[in-house]
Design brief:
Layout lengths: L2 H24 L3 E14 L14 E13 L2 E5 L18 H7 L9 H7 L7 E5 L18 E5 H8 L3 H6 L14 E5 L3 E2 L6 E5 L8 E6 L5 E6 L19 H18 L2 E4 L3 H7 L2 E3 L1
The structure holds zinc ion.
Zinc ion binds next to loops.
Length: about 290
């Protein structure tokens, strides 16, 4: 190969790399961290049984949902607890044991449709709904979005329709949350997926908590990167080797936790947990851009 040809190839590669990096940061997105109410107070070891006794305490935790404004359409990541449990009505809809332990305090104003309204959107403005997994505090209001494209891991759709006996027994799946959503428009993925093809919002395959659990990566125009773990990491303690107490596979759970942590370290990305009391108090209920 002639020197000039080599130079042209190298230049071409550099341009291609520059274009791909640049495009991620040229899309102007903003993201709002909302909560479908709060669970608790209850003992942290009810969720993380392996936590040492000297770290035992009572916690209250947010039910995290994210509303992401992208120029090509609004994306919602998780739809929280079903509207039916709002304002003290938990036992009309969830198994009593979950109401007694989790102590949900969702107000009607906390539900995803009202959160969208508060920010100036309606449920019909939402183009894409990503559901991290099919547990009751994440898929709860999927039926409010019949016109959206719904993105889930294919494995999670199977998980939702035939949960293992231990998950059914715990009441973690409420099939009434999604039994009327079966004919919605689904994009069943198997792995990571860049939603609008510009690197701004990427679904990350993060199984373990459930068979097809997903996390989400956001890249803002200013270069900030968020990794929104949802239940791949409930809270900071899960990063320290103490797994969530409800998992499809603890081994796969740790593989996903390690991947998200490494990705966060390598990219300098901020890691957001699904249910962390302190992080919510410091960073919840606000826009990021
Ligand atoms: Zn959860």
């Amino acid at each position: 190969m002639k020197k000039s040809t080599i130079f042209a190839v190298i230049l071409g590669l550099a341009c291609a790399m520059g274009a791909s990096v640049g495009s991620a940061h040229n899309t102007n997105i903003k993201a709002y961290w909302a909560a479908s109410g709060i669970f608790g107070p209850f003992p942290i070891r009810g969720l993380i049984p392996s936590l040492p006794e000297d770290r035992a305490r009572d916690i209250t935790i947010p039910i995290s949902m994210w509303i992401i404004d992208h120029p090509k359409g609004v994306v919602v990541f998780d739809t929280g607890n079903n509207i039916a449990i709002s304002d003290g009505n938990c036992k009309t809809y969830w198994v009593p044991g979950n109401c007694d332990f989790l102590k949900p305090s969702q107000r009607r104003a906390d539900v995803i449709d009202m959160q969208l309204k508060k920010l100036g959107y309606s449920v019909n403005d939402v183009k894409v709904v990503v559901t991290s997994h099919s547990h009751l505090d994440h898929i709860g209001n999927i039926e409010m979005f019949p016109n959206a494209l719904h993105i889930l891991q294919k494995r999670e759709l199977y998980q939702a329709w035939w949960p293992e006996k231990f998950q059914r027994g715990s009441g973690a799946h409420v099939m009434a949350d999604y039994d009327n959503a079966r004919d919605f428009n689904y994009l069943a993925i198997d792995g990571d997926f860049d939603i609008y093809g510009d690197g701004a919002i990427t679904v990350l395959d993060a199984p373990g908590h459930t068979l097809g659990n997903s996390s989400l990566k956001l890249k803002f125009r200013n270069g900030d990167t968020f990794i929104i773990a949802q239940d791949a990491l409930w809270m900071r303690e899960n990063l320290e080797g103490y797994p969530a107490g409800l998992n499809f596979s603890v081994k796969t759970y740790f593989e996903s936790a390690d991947r998200l942590k490494a990705m966060s370290d390598l990219e300098g990305a901020e890691l957001f947990f699904g249910h962390d009391e302190q992080q919510w108090k410091e960073k919840g209920d606000r826009w990021y851009k």
